[in-house]
Design a protein that fits this description.
five-stranded antiparallel beta sheet; 36% helix
Length: 717
């Protein structure tokens, strides 16, 4: 009986609720020879758990009854000594050590025997960085590595248990029962403790770690909404700069101070593209060059002028990483910069969708942490976001390329000389002073960017703007061109009047109006970053032939008072004007058709072919150009023409809605495409009225004005 009682008291509690209090096992004595138990130590007597139980408790009464029935009263049984390894430990000293003070507790102050263990928040724990220290009596547990656990089903940490000079260190997953048992046995042996004591300690430490881990995960999963409060003096300086004329020259000077010499177009275009992050359809940039040409210097210089909370930069990106960024990073109206396009080659598909559609989503299967069942979960990343890439590749994914503005770094010898001169100048006294000026300039730019607000931009001259339409890729190039205009206007928002228009629900939507000066700057940049160069595509003889065609078409259009895109050339007319042989003419004409300077139209009865000259002499004004951009001087002269959305607006400022379904009731004067052919204004994109009695020479183009399939002059395909 004595051995059975000892085993029961030493067993681990596996029931529900808190374990019942246990005391040191009393040796069983025969009823006739029962003697009082020896007095206990003061420390043990002070603990409620060590108080001797009454003799009438159920287990002891049962023992006595069984003894009376089965044993002879005259037989004296010798006292049995319990096995040392089976004696339950005296936990009275442990409970006393866990009390707030070492003083003896009064009976009325003693906690009840069924009290629950202390909560995690009540345990003495100190947190210093990634180190958590928990003290339980004379035992101390030091935990490291908690921050590495990024899910709710892991608790891999390093635990160092000490008691006096005894130490035990091990790494384990506290959610693994087997690993906890191994740690408990080893720690109890090293610290000279009972294994149950270490087991209870680990449970309390686990509660503390779960509380800290859950708080860290909740904070990590919440999208970061960083708001930076600008001091009053800095805010006043930024507002003054925004309201002062000459923002574009100031940007150029600041980027030069940051170490970029020359490259004016690339500087301004990259900066404006970064500003476009505040638009509903931001621009995207790819900086292309050979190794060591300075593409990374351009990206780093522009990003240094943007607030840290408005940009996210990575060296590389895996194929699926972008889909899962929505839970940790808010990309809306931010700059997503990737150092090398090759590092994001697997994420190209996601980048293309994010740029075009403004958001991406993916559904994947994962294990439910509560039930353990496999479930599908949808992940979304919302934009708009401005994408900034660099690359050394000469061949870039075509679908990504036509969504971005490509900035080509100047690799000429003159630019190399300028860079060398700047590098030497940085080693002089003036260079040292200039480097010290960078930090205040960067800080001012970042404050300026923080003060810019997302706002709609209206282009009052939108219906009179022109753009090449000879290829389908110009549909996206046209949006880049309009985005440049909007970015210029948005940058100057503190120098423009903020207007409002009533939208759905009676809300007032603020917007800005673009000016002809904004269009002029966008034209200048578009000619460089979206344009082409004759020297890059055509040999000198073909360039001369192209200029001869330009003179021929210009004279014919002036004589007939028709638009250039409505004039059709024949080979006989070209032969008479150029005096070339038919063989040479075919060679030059085919090259111009290949590079889309000339478009081919099928003539009457499908037997003859006529040609449309797209080139309008742009190469005479600049080396690089976009064919067909509007003349800003002419735009200013026609500012009063009543054929824009501004003139169709209500006197109170309500805009007409050209995006409604064709044929819907609109403001007076609006014409549907069926009234104007392929144009979107009464006189088309060039100001020519196709309903006038004056008609172009030659047949009209069918559909989009291009013949299906390649056509060789002379009628062969």
């Amino acid at each position: 009986m004595s051995s059975l009682g000892i085993l029961l008291n030493a067993a681990t509690w596996m029931g529900t609720g808190p374990a019942p209090p246990r005391s040191k096992v009393q040796r069983w004595q025969p009823p006739a020879a029962a003697v009082p138990a020896p007095p206990r130590a003061e420390a043990s007597a002070s603990s409620p758990a060590s108080t001797p139980r009454p003799a009438a408790t159920a287990p002891e009464a049962t023992h006595e009854s069984a003894a009376d029935e089965s044993a002879d009263e005259d037989l004296a049984l010798p006292p049995l000594e319990p096995a040392p390894e089976l004696i339950a430990p005296d936990v009275a000293a442990e409970e006393s050590a866990l009390s707030p003070s070492g003083a003896e507790l009064a009976p009325e102050d003693a906690p009840p025997a069924t009290s629950a263990p202390p909560a995690a928040a009540d345990l003495p724990a100190r947190v210093e960085g990634d180190q958590i220290e928990v003290e339980l009596g004379d035992r101390r547990y030091l935990v490291r590595g908690l921050s590495k656990n990024k899910s709710y089903d892991l608790m891999k940490v390093s635990v160092k248990a000490t008691r006096g000079e005894a130490v035990h260190v091990d790494s384990l997953d506290l959610y693994s029962h087997r690993m906890r048992q191994i740690f408990q046995r080893a720690a109890a042996d090293e610290l000279e403790l009972d294994e149950n004591v270490v087991k209870r300690d680990l449970g309390r430490v686990l509660l503390v770690l779960e509380t800290l881990r859950d708080a860290q995960l909740k904070k990590t999963l919440e999208p970061k909404k960083e708001t930076v409060e600008i001091p009053k003096e800095r805010k006043l300086a930024a507002l003054t700069r925004l309201r002062t004329k000459g923002l574009i020259p100031w940007i150029e000077e600041s980027l030069t101070l940051c170490g970029l010499v020359g490259e004016r177009t690339n500087k301004v275009a990259a900066y404006l593209a970064s500003v476009s992050r505040l638009l509903d359809r931001p621009l995207a940039i790819i900086v292309q060059s050979s190794s060591a040409a300075g593409k990374s210097a351009l990206m780093d210089a522009v990003l240094s002028l943007m607030p840290e909370e408005h940009r996210v930069k990575y060296s590389a990106m895996t194929g699926q990483a972008l889909y899962y960024m929505g839970e940790s990073v808010d990309l809306r109206h931010r700059i997503l910069a990737i150092a090398e396009e090759e590092g994001a080659s697997r994420a190209t598909y996601a980048l293309k969708l994010l740029q075009s559609e403004g958001e991406i989503s993916i559904i994947s299967t994962g294990k439910d942490p509560q039930t353990g069942e496999l479930k599908s979960k949808e992940y979304k990343v919302k934009g708009p976001v401005m994408i900034f890439l660099t690359t050394t590749a000469y061949e870039i994914d075509e679908e990504l390329l036509n969504r971005c503005i490509v900035l080509v770094v100047d690799e000429g010898r003159a630019q190399t000389r300028r860079i060398h001169e700047m590098q030497r100048q940085m080693m002089t006294l003036e260079g040292i002073v200039a480097r010290k000026r960078r930090a205040p300039v960067m800080e001012l730019h970042q404050d300026v960017q923080r003060l810019l607000k997302p706002m709609a931009v209206r282009i009052p001259y939108a219906m009179r703007l022109t753009f090449p339409d000879y290829a389908t890729r110009t549909r996206r190039d046209h949006m880049k061109y309009l985005g440049l205009i909007q970015a210029v206007t948005l940058l100057h928002q503190y120098q423009r009047e903020v207007k409002e228009v009533e939208v759905e629900g009676g809300k007032m939507e603020p917007y800005l109006d673009a000016t002809p000066e904004d269009v002029a700057l966008a034209n200048e940049l578009a000619n460089e970053v979206l344009g082409r160069s004759l020297d890059d595509e055509l040999p000198p003889q073909t360039q001369v032939f192209l200029e001869q065609l330009h003179e021929l078409v210009t004279k014919a259009c002036e004589a007939r008072h028709i638009a250039r895109q409505d004039y059709r050339l024949t080979r006989r007319e070209i032969l008479d004007h150029t005096r070339l042989s038919l063989t040479v003419l075919r060679r030059h004409l085919q090259r111009l058709v290949d590079y889309e300077y000339v478009l081919v139209h099928q003539g009457a009865r499908g037997q003859t072919f006529t040609y449309e000259l797209v080139y309008n002499g742009e190469a005479r004004q600049r080396e690089r150009f976009v064919m067909g951009l509007v003349d800003v001087a002419r735009l200013k002269e026609e500012a009063a023409a009543p054929r824009t959305t501004a003139d169709l607006a209500h006197p109170e400022g309500d805009l007409a809605h050209p995006w409604l379904t064709h044929g819907s009731p609109m403001a007076r004067g609006w014409l549907t495409p069926s009234d104007v052919g392929n144009g979107s204004s009464p006189k088309g994109s060039s100001g020519f009225d196709p309903r006038s009695p004056e008609i172009a020479r030659g047949p009209k183009p069918n559909g989009d004005g291009r013949h299906a399939g390649p056509v060789v002059p002379g009628g062969r395909r």
